[in-house]
């Protein structure tokens, strides 16, 4: 665990899969007497106004439970007592870093926390999740007040829900769950979709500058509410230009690009271009791998631009957005159809990332495999090709 002051830079370039921006939800909590559970996943940093009281006490920008009382003469809570909050990830995926931020909680922070994860139906209710298989991805660890606690996660499996336990009670400002999205390929079968979208498995592979806004914002769902929810670079004073490289969710043939400068008025790029490459498995293709997808084209401020892409561009895995010379872009959409190899890649990634129990349940429900046969398949992972018995 690493502890940092809450106003230090964010610990990970990976998206926050629990965040409200990606559709995360705090489904239930054992208690929220002093401050609401929904504050845990707000996208903005926590704030504080001292001596601001409501009818239940000082107002905190976080989740805060009442003081637990035990049965003994001094009513102290027991060693096993804990409050909990149940979070549905906005985008299921493999978690790499969990952040428990106790910003502004000083005399009322929990002494320790535990984080658990489950792979369940995304529409499961809190009552159904109570019986889920919960894996401990962050064992019980001490916390301090007014600090961002960063926990590295080594579990390689895809999860849909988190449960934050605080021992025995207290307040937490924010919970972040940074990781790599792993979409379920079944709803996408046979469809065209946005190959750049985070929720579908798109990712930022490289970026020249992110001084004012993260390039990950380009791939977020929905429309930005303000300029700060886009990607923005500092002002260039040289002859170069800024760029971002996107690794597509799967190898695909692209049909339509959308470059949205919404909310960027005096700081939109003057023009932009798109280049594409086919480099399976590469973090970012080498300089000579790129071909033109959209020639350098003038952009307007605060405008949604849509461009048909050439039909002969072929199978692509990466797209590079160049902006000239600098500025901000709110969203980048890249619509198309995965190739057969691309669809197989999506399926393999999902199958290999399922926890063993979730794999066995899925194999039984989807393909009618006996539990023993499904367990043998689960143990034989990672697959390098899709088994014939699993027709996704």
TrEMBL record:
Molecular function terms, GO-annotated: allantoicase activity
Name of the protein in its database record: Probable allantoicase
Keyword Methyltransferase in annotation: no
Highest taxon, organism lineage: Bacteria
Positions of the Allantoicase domain: 23-181, 201-338
Protein species of origin: Allonocardiopsis opalescens
Gene3D superfamilies (alphabetical): Galactose-binding domain-like (2.60.120.260)
Pathway membership, UniProt: Nitrogen metabolism; (S)-allantoin degradation; (S)-ureidoglycolate from allantoate (aminidohydrolase route): step 1/1
Location of region: Disordered: 1-22, 62-81
SUPFAM superfamilies registered for this protein in UniProt: Galactose-binding domain-like
Family (UniProt): Belongs to the allantoicase family.
EC number: 3.5.3.4
Reaction(s) the record says it catalyses: allantoate + H2O = (S)-ureidoglycolate + urea
A single BP term in Gene Ontology: allantoin catabolic process
UniProt cross-references to InterPro entries, sorted A to Z: Allantoicase (IPR005164), Allantoicase_dom (IPR015908), Galactose-bd-like_sf (IPR008979)
Pfam families: Allantoicase
Keywords: Hydrolase, Purine metabolism
NCBIfam families assigned to the protein according to its UniProt record, in alphabetical order: allantoicase
């Amino acid at each position: 665990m690493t502890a940092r002051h809450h106003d230090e830079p964010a610990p990970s370039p990976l998206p926050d899969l629990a965040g409200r921006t990606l559709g995360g939800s705090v489904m239930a909590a054992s208690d929220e007497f002093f401050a609401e559970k929904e504050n845990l996943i707000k996208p903005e940093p926590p704030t504080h106004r001292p001596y601001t009281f409501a009818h239940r006490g000082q107002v905190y920008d976080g989740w805060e439970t009442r003081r637990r009382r035990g049965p003994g003469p001094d009513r102290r809570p027991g060693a096993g007592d804990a409050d909990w909050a149940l979070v549905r990830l906005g985008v299921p995926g493999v978690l790499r870093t969990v952040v428990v931020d106790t910003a502004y909680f000083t005399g009322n922070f929990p002494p320790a926390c535990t984080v658990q994860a489950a792979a369940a139906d995304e529409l499961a209710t809190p009552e159904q999740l109570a019986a889920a298989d919960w894996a401990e991805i962050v064992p019980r660890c001490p916390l301090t007040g007014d600090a961002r606690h960063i926990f590295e996660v080594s579990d390689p499996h895809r999860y849909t829900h988190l449960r934050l336990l605080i021992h025995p009670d207290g307040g937490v400002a924010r919970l972040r769950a940074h990781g790599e999205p792993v979409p379920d390929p079944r709803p996408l079968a046979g469809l065209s979709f946005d190959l750049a979208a985070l929720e579908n498995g798109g990712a930022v592979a490289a970026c020249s500058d992110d001084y004012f806004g993260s390039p990950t914002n380009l791939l977020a769902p929905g429309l930005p509410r303000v300029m700060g929810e886009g990607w923005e670079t500092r002002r260039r004073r040289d002859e170069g230009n800024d760029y971002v490289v996107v690794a597509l969710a799967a190898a695909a043939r692209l049909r339509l690009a959308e470059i949205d400068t919404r909310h960027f008025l005096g700081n939109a790029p003057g023009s932009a271009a798109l280049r594409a490459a086919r480099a399976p498995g590469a973090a970012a293709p080498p300089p000579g791998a790129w071909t033109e997808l959209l020639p350098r084209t003038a952009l307007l401020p605060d405008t949604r631009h849509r461009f048909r892409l050439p039909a002969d561009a072929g199978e692509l895995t990466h797209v590079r957005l160049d902006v000239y010379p600098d500025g901000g872009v709110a969203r980048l959409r890249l619509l198309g159809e995965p190739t057969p190899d691309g669809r197989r890649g999506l399926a393999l990634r999902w199958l290999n990332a399922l926890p063993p129990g979730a794999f066995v349940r899925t194999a039984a429900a989807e393909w009618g495999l006996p539990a023993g046969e499904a367990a043998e398949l689960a143990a034989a992972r990672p697959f390098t090709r899709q088994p014939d018995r699993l027709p996704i």
